[in-house]
């Protein structure tokens, strides 16, 4: 599987730092890749997928500023141009998604409609 140079998504500096931190934790399975994608469900129709997983046949491999990740090629349609950020505050902690393709999003920010 070749690495595609044009990444369909962007990561903020905070998101890159948090992902690199997670991947450097003791016990992290180095055979896993960061997976970005969508799945059906959530209050707006589609939910974001962000986690670690094994590569599958339908996956495309990308790189963004030294971070390698995988995504099903079909998901690029829904996620192209999206920015992933990390919020480390007390009131809002976790990854957030800014998706220009979403026609609406839910209040929690983890699901969207196109």
Helix and strand arrangement:
Elements: E1 3-4, E2 9-11, H1 13-23, E3 33-40, E4 46-53, E5 59-64, E6 67-72, H2 76-79, E7 82-88, E8 93-98, E9 104-105, E10 111-113
Parallel strand pairs: 1-5, 2-7, 3-6
Antiparallel strand pairs: 3-4, 4-10, 5-6, 7-8, 9-10
Describe the structure.
- This is Iron-sulfur cluster assembly accessory protein.
- The structure is a single chain.
- The chain has 114 residues and is mostly beta strands.
- It has one domain: Sandwich (Hypothetical Protein Aq_1857, Chain: A).
- The chain is 13% helix and 45% strand.
- It is built from 2 helices and 10 strands.
- The strands form 2 sheets. Strands 1-5-6-3-4-10-9 form a 7-stranded mixed β-sheet. It has a 3-stranded mixed β-sheet with strand order 2-7-8.
- The N and C termini lie far apart (29 Å).
- The mean pLDDT is 85.
Structure keywords:
114 residues; Hypothetical Protein Aq_1857, Chain: A; three-stranded mixed sheet
Number of strands: 10
Largest sheet: 7 strands, mixed
Shape: globular
- Total number of helical segments? 2
CATH homologous superfamily grouping: HesB-like domain
Strand order of the largest sheet: 1-5-6-3-4-10-9
Share of residues in strands: 35-45%
* CATH top level assignment: Mainly Beta
Integer average pLDDT: 85
CATH architecture call: Sandwich
Unreliable stretches, pLDDT < 50, 5 or more residues?
A: none
Describe this structure in a few short sentences:
This protein has helices at residues 13-23, 76-79, and strands at 3-4, 9-11, 33-40, 46-53, 59-64, 67-72, 82-88, 93-98, 104-105, 111-113. With 114 residues, the protein is mainly beta. The protein has a single domain (3-113), classed as HesB-like domain (Hypothetical Protein Aq_1857, Chain: A), CATH 2.60.300.
